[in-house]
Design goal:
It is built from five helices and four strands, in the order αααβαββαβ. The chain has 156 residues and is an alpha+beta fold.
Length: 156
């Protein structure tokens, strides 16, 4: 799908505030409301807008621990990979999971209330998984940047 500057501006506005009305978006991108709505609808139909969500403040909710965990499996056969991935998507503590190149099979972003909860999650869940051979925890100390916004200005 070819995106013009107006499409990118609409996407940027929505990724920073999905609660904006069509009228507010139209005003900011210099369109009337109907053509703006049609563009948004076209972007949705093309699958560029996946979800419209509210971003929660994890600190205000008492979730103070962020851990990046690296995982190696006992074997990287197809069945082990599928089994691990089917398990990992069920754990709400795991916000993100990526397969990796290099020495680690997976990188997980895990958020928990406190260190005790993280330890319990590791002992009772991750380490208890028979597919997991090795797990290393990397505790985040200071959050410098945390964004969900994609760098759309580099696409123009």
């Amino acid at each position: 799908m070819d995106l013009d500057k107006t499409d990118l501006a609409i996407l940027d506005l929505l990724q920073n505030d999905s609660g904006l009305s069509t009228a507010a978006i139209a005003e900011r991108v210099n369109l009337s409301q109907s053509p703006c709505w049609r563009r948004i609808h076209r972007l949705e139909e093309a699958g560029l807008l996946k979800n419209r969500v509210a971003l929660l403040d994890r600190h205000a909710l008492g979730m103070d621990i962020v851990v990046f965990a690296t995982v190696n499996l006992t074997s990287t056969g197809r069945q082990n990979l599928l089994s691990f991935e089917e398990d990992i998507v069920r754990y709400p503590e795991v916000l993100e999971c990526y397969t990796m190149t290099g020495i680690w099979d997976y990188l997980l972003k895990i958020v928990t209330r406190d260190m005790r909860h993280y330890e319990r999650f590791v002992r009772e869940t991750l380490s208890a998984n028979p597919d997991v051979r090795e797990l290393h925890s990397h505790m985040a100390v200071t959050e410098i940047k945390n964004s969900t916004a994609l760098p759309l200005q580099t696409q123009a």
